[in-house]
Design brief:
The chain has about 375 residues and is mainly beta. The chain contains 3 helices and 20 strands.
Length: about 375
């Protein structure tokens, strides 16, 4: 169980990261009602621009039984086009948890191990623009092997084929559209007497608008995001999975406070979420954070439940060390529409920890000050009264 909890590494592959980073990050959510799948991660994130050569960048996310890596080559194809080669793999990261109407069905869940290798192309369309416009093309081959857990039912057949990587970004803005196609070498029925199906190919289309800002004088930090997605031929392994409150559990975490990790499976959805944090003392080391999210969901057939709307709220205490090296969040979340034993409402608690080994090298950077040129954001400073 501990290995499963620690194996889910977070990847930040939206671009070749230009910032040197050495981070330890840990997150864990515990439901207070019912029994859900393990929700947690612990990993070391390493990003080194200028790795052996000035145009190379090495990115590593290392968990106890899983590694995600990418070697980026700047200007490999043109002055504005970079190339990257990625390799990832390890244990437990492809495990599947079956959840229907708020009930975690362990007898229909199983363990998955796997690995992948791929190539990515990053192109900057406006190299002189203050707000970057990027295009990303990625192709990869992924192999997964599945096995029964100790509680997987004997009759269940397994035969079938924007933002910085930190917990609380002080400044971020994103408007993006994405497509992902999945083509499988093996497909067909699985489960109890073939009662569910693995599609030969699935297609996902989604977009996200995100904005995060920190008020310069008050040091209040807030963020808001709107994510929407649809799909063609989605199945249990390609559907959108919503639920949980861990911000770095995946490249596009679809968080709903108070719900089990990836509790809801959707072939179409719209998710609106927001977060606000404010300091509680003069030193700005302690703070209060509140969050809320709501989603309208068209469920994957076979995993539907009453009501399309699902919402959750949360609150937590934030601590930052004076050097900005340590960040700690202790939180509580309530899933307003989560189903537990036939009733609505679910409680959970969680912890997030981040340790930045690069904090001393960068010095005591103000919490609101991004590594982007602040002069480019004078419009936002004016808007919020600076």
């Amino acid at each position: 169980m501990l290995l499963i909890c620690l194996s889910a590494s977070a990847s930040a592959r939206a671009q070749i990261d230009p910032e040197r980073r050495r981070l330890f990050q840990l997150g864990y959510n515990q439901p207070l009602q019912g029994r859900g799948p393990l929700s947690g991660y612990a990993f070391y994130y390493y990003n080194e621009p200028g790795f052996t050569e000035t145009n190379l960048t090495l990115r590593l996310a290392i968990a106890p039984v899983y590694v995600d890596s990418e070697l980026g080559i700047r200007h490999a194809l043109s002055p504005n086009t970079d190339l990257a080669i990625g390799v990832a793999g390890g244990g437990f990261a492809d495990s599947y948890s079956e959840i229907r109407r708020g009930k975690y069905l362990r007898e229909e869940s199983f363990t998955g191990h796997g690995g992948e290798a791929g190539v990515s192309i990053y192109h900057r369309f406006n190299p002189d623009g203050g707000i970057p416009l990027n295009g990303i093309l990625r192709g990869f081959v992924h192999y997964t092997t599945y096995q029964r857990d100790d509680v997987t039912a004997p009759g269940f057949d397994l035969r079938w084929g924007g933002r910085e990587p930190i917990m609380l970004p002080s400044l971020a803005m994103e408007l993006s559209a994405w497509y992902e196609g999945q083509y499988r070498t093996e497909s067909g029925p699985f489960g109890f007497n073939g009662d569910r199906d693995l599609k030969e190919h699935s297609h996902l289309f989604w977009g996200r608008a995100l904005f995060a800002y920190t008020l310069p004088e008050l040091k209040h930090n807030f963020s808001v995001s709107l994510t929407a997605g649809t799909s063609l031929h989605a199945d249990r392994f390609s559907a959108y999975r919503l639920g949980g409150a861990l911000p770095l559990v995946s490249e596009f975490p679809l968080t709903l406070p108070g719900y089990y990790f990836q509790e809801l499976s959707a072939d179409r959805f719209v998710l609106l979420s927001g977060q606000y944090a404010l300091p509680l003392d003069r030193s700005k080391q302690w703070g209060l954070m509140i969050s809320a999210a709501t989603a309208a969901i068209d469920y994957l057939p076979g995993l539907d439940q009453p009501g399309r709307r699902n919402s959750g709220v949360g609150a937590g205490i934030v601590f930052r060390s004076k050097s900005q090296a340590w960040h700690l969040v202790l939180g509580y979340a309530y899933g307003i529409d989560a189903i537990r034993d036939g009733e609505r409402g679910a409680h959970s608690v969680g912890i997030l920890v981040q340790y930045d080994l690069e904090a001393d090298r960068r010095g005591k950077k103000p919490f609101w000050d991004p590594w982007l040129n602040p002069n480019r954001w004078r419009g936002f400073d004016w808007l919020f009264g600076r």
